[in-house]
Predict the 3D structure of the following.
Amino acid sequence: MFNAKVNQNKDLSAYQGVCVIAQQEKGINLSVTFELMNEGRKLADKTDSQLYVVILGNKIDDAVDELSNYGADKIFYYEHELLEKYSTDAYTKVVSSFIEDNKPEIVIYGASSIGRDFAPRVAARVGTGLVADCTGLDINEEDGKFLQTRPAFGGNLMATIICPNDRPQMATVRPGVMEKAKKVNKKSHVLKIVPSLTQEDIIARTVDIIMDKTKKVSLNDADIIVAGGRGVGNKEGFELLQQLADTLGGVVGSSRVPVDSGWIDHSRQIGQTGQTVRPKLYIACGISGAIQHMTGMSESEYIIAINKNPSAPIMKSSHLAIEGDLFKVIPELINEINSKK
Ligand code: FAD
């Protein structure tokens, strides 16, 4: 366990409550927001405190209304036309001033590209630390300390970090690791706030956001993932995996080797330096099961491994291990599934 120290002169008792920084895109709440809300609720209950959600945007009342059904005590909705698209400067300013005014004890962000971009800036501005890329959060029952767990040393060990002298205690959390919050019967209290923002506050401006049209369903949202590794051999090999994914209504993922080899886009990488997923079904084709890959998919509900080598580590960690050449097994699987349709 490591102790991180940034600022020892704060009145720690002034900081109360758990705060989730929500993420939305064009008025659609992202999955990570619901995952953080579930985790935030547990932390708030364990610290006998309130759960706040902060959401930023412009004319996103429907998204805010949806969030109000998921167990937060209060939602702070910062609405401004300069918040229509993500802006590092605007988000940093608004979230920092929220923290200075409301003094939450714990603040959690999604470790998405956006969260990873502005959370460290907020930390610097409010004079606290930040534990990046957490895969587990908890409160120590004995002393009430906030425990932030993340992979360290290439994923070979899990480090639990505490920040006893800093407030707020802040963490970014990997999308896809935590379960999503469920709807509750009680609505959250929503406060709409117009922040004081001007063009001068924004140095770097987002001109446009171009969505990747090839990704119909993101890896995080997919129920079925067909993932390929070195055993797939080349770019063309992934066409066979795509056929299996299409047959099952799933999406294609990858280990790091095909990404590094240029066979598939980095957005498809699963693992320590890629995405964390927990689909209902994960089919690993020609993947050995290195720890750095397993970190990103071991929470899948059902894992099928197709591998030539019966001693590959993934064969032991899967629910069903199919020993064989993926180029023979997958076409047979596709035929079998189609014959049952
Ligand atoms: P290999 O380990 O080479 O395994 C290939 C498998 O395919 C073998 O088991 C073989 O038996 C099987 N095979 C071959 N041909 C066939 C066939 N025709 N049919 C069936 N099976 C076949 N890796 C990730 O995946 N994600 C990460 O995010 C990640 N981050 C990393 C971060 C760090 C800091 C480091 C050091 C490494 C990281 N890695 C990551 C790399 C990781 O350590 C492994 O090297 C990688 O996961 C191996 O990929 P693989 O299983 O596809 O390839």
In short: Residues 1-5 have pLDDT under 50 and may be disordered. The first strand starts at residue 2 and ends at 3.
